[in-house]
Amino acid sequence: MYYASEQMFKRLFIYCAAAFTCSIFIAVILLDTKYVDIRVKEERPIVDSIFSVINKQAAQAPIDQDLLHYWSGQFGYELELLSIQNTQDLELDLAQLTQDGSVIELISGWTQDKVTAYYLRNEQILKMSKMHIDKQAYLLYWQSLLVTILVVLALFVYCYVHMHKKYIKKLLNAYETYGQGKLSLRVSTQMPAPYSVLASHFNTMATKIENLLEEHQHMLNGISHDLKTPLARLRFALDMTRSCTSTEEYQETIQFMDEDLDALDELLDDWFLYVGLNAARREPKVQTCRLDKMLHKIVSRSAPIYSNIKAVSQITPDIVVGADKKLLSRAVENLVNNACKFASQTIRVSTHLDNDYVCIVVEDDGAGIPEDKRAAVLKPFLRLDSSRNVPGIGLGLSIVASILNSHNGKLNICDSDLGGAKITLMLPINCEAELATSDACAL
């Protein structure tokens, strides 16, 4: 955003400089032509009068240098008598001089004007020239020049502001419409910077808010649905205790109630963990974790719970990775538990290095996850039809995805050669894959 604003101000500076330069050229071209015409009209009566006087004097006596010097002192013009042959070096239109009998030229300078008049007299040309300063005319000229420059600049500023006004109005209308509840609104980014950057940030923000609200709604629906089942069982068990006729029946009912409380505890634990991971972006407490020890311990602790499942470990020794050991352990444990729940007979846990990632792979021989449902299983409280009879609330993979997101990792779901699902947890390599001398990740 800062870069886009900087670019906009650079362009504005360039445009203003160009507009200022153009305004000067326009003012000079327009005013100089008009100024020269006015000054020529002012000088013509003067030089005509001088020529009349000199011409009248020349009727009585020939024109010589002394006479020209005398009249130069009287009128302030430098007088010079030239032959037609001597005018070839001058930028003089002889045809116009022959036709009109006189030509007056004025060259406007920054501080003074040079006035030159040519009069045809017999076979000679009388040249009159002087450097002229008219303070009043120059004051008027500079005032007109300044007004013209300001008008051109004002026109440029108006057009520039009007062009940007429509982009600002477009963004404001989008913000107001979005604030009124139209959360699906997105703004076109086909605008110049920085408005395209603002539109892009608005679209990103709107998408995140819409996803959060949708996720919030799913979460409320999921929590309300999954709380009802154990609460209903608890109420039923509580009612059953009133009709117990023996200690054994009473203890069995209490056991059922205890299991329902464990289910509630698991639900709340998963829900608080998921909310904590997604409430704010926090940096994980990265430590050097030795994967072989961590994974062997998780498999040896989780797999025995499922007596009919065989766990196969193909864990490469001596691989280390930088990660938050508690979060990484929770993610792998969720994957292993999910695999055990959906497997028919076998799960497999393996590790390997893949370019810039350390990969932890968990596979099972169950029904697998259809390709068109692999994005859905990562959403909270959304469960596939094949998993309706499996215990859980649908937060396992969502928690794994959130943990990976906090570690800048990836989660890949595909088919396993065992016949079921293959889920790969990919963590970026931020420490060398060598033997860790410490047991920082021993659980």
From TrEMBL:
SUPFAM superfamilies per UniProt: ATPase domain of HSP90 chaperone/DNA topoisomerase II/histidine kinase, Homodimeric domain of signal transducing histidine kinase
InterPro entries, alphabetized: 2C_sensor_his_kinase, HATPase_C_sf, HATPase_dom, His_kinase_dom, HisK_dim/P_dom, HisK_dim/P_sf, Sig_transdc_His_kin-like_C
Enzymatic reactions: ATP + protein L-histidine = ADP + protein N-phospho-L-histidine
GO CC list: plasma membrane
Pfam families: HATPase_c, HisKA
UniProt-listed Enzyme Commission number(s): 2.7.13.3
Segments crossing the lipid bilayer: 12-31, 140-161
Top-rank taxon, per record: Bacteria
Keywords in alphabetical order: ATP-binding, Cell membrane, Kinase, Membrane, Nucleotide-binding, Phosphoprotein, Transferase, Transmembrane, Transmembrane helix
Lipid bilayer topology: Multi-pass membrane protein
Gene3D superfamilies the record matches: 1.10.287.130, Histidine kinase-like ATPase, C-terminal domain (3.30.565.10)
CDD domains: HisKA
Recorded GO MF terms: ATP binding; phosphorelay sensor kinase activity
The encoding gene: sasA_4
Membrane is among the record's keywords: yes
Name of this chain's protein: histidine kinase
Major enzyme class: transferase
Source organism per UniProt: Pseudoalteromonas holothuriae
KW Transmembrane (keyword) present: yes
